[in-house]
């Protein structure tokens, strides 16, 4: 099956700092989504980005499908950005299930 | 913005009991899913449902599990004879007509088996 690898596994930032989270995948995908899991366990959909670049406030994402990676940028981080960030892909030739990476745990300190 | 709703938010059940988790997908969506997340681990696919039947299921989704769309709005996951290892967060999701459209997730049901 498809492999989804996220890096780094853990990240500690001072409030106001910028960060880049990476998601590598091993095969072609039809869909790629970024999620933020907050401390209450809710999965918040950040981006649907199978290719190209999108921005939403302090967050932006870029997917280079031909090179099989996606990047999530967080600028001017806030303590509320803390949580786990998951990348999930829908494998192109097979089925409708999202395959999740292991996540990046982000801690933003004030 | 329309959203997926799940009930209950937290369910505590004795081992061996049956539990039903409920979901109301987004109204014009056609694909429905259940995912599971054991504490501290990544989210895992359980099952997808389309046109009133299971379209795909994972190895986790054995005879202990079943899904149903009993009416035009609800989508349920039933777990028979629960085990301690069924303790997890269960997420329902739905997506639109075309394959590859974004999946929208509910807030999850935290299932605790005692």
Gap between N and C termini of chain A: 41 Å
Count, helices of chain A:
0
Taken in chain order, the helices and strands of chain A follow as: EEEEEEEEEEE
Q: Judging from the principal axes of the Cα atoms, what is the shape of chain A?
A: globular
Describe the structure.
The complex is a heterodimer of chains A (110) and B (114). Chain A is an all-beta fold. Chain A has strands at 4-7, 10-14, 19-25, 29-37, 43-48, 52-56, 59-64, 69-74, 83-91, 98-100, 104-109. In chain A, strands 2, 4, 5, 9, 10 and 11 form a 6-stranded mixed β-sheet that branches. A 5-stranded antiparallel β-sheet of chain A has the order 1-3-8-7-6, with no helix packed on it. The radius of gyration of chain A is 13 Å and the shape is globular. By secondary structure, chain B is an all-beta fold. Chain B contains no helices and 11 strands. In chain B, strands 2, 4, 5, 6, 9, 10 and 11 form a 7-stranded mixed β-sheet that branches. A 4-stranded antiparallel β-sheet of chain B has the order 1-3-8-7, with no helix packed on it. In chain B, strand 5 and strand 6 form a beta hairpin. Chain B is globular, with a radius of gyration of 13 Å. Chain A binds chain B through residues 30-31, 33, 35, 41-43, 45, 48, 50, 86, 88, 90, 95-103, and chain B through 31, 33, 35, 37, 42-45, 48, 50, 55-56, 58, 89, 91, 93, 95, 99-105, 107-108, 110.
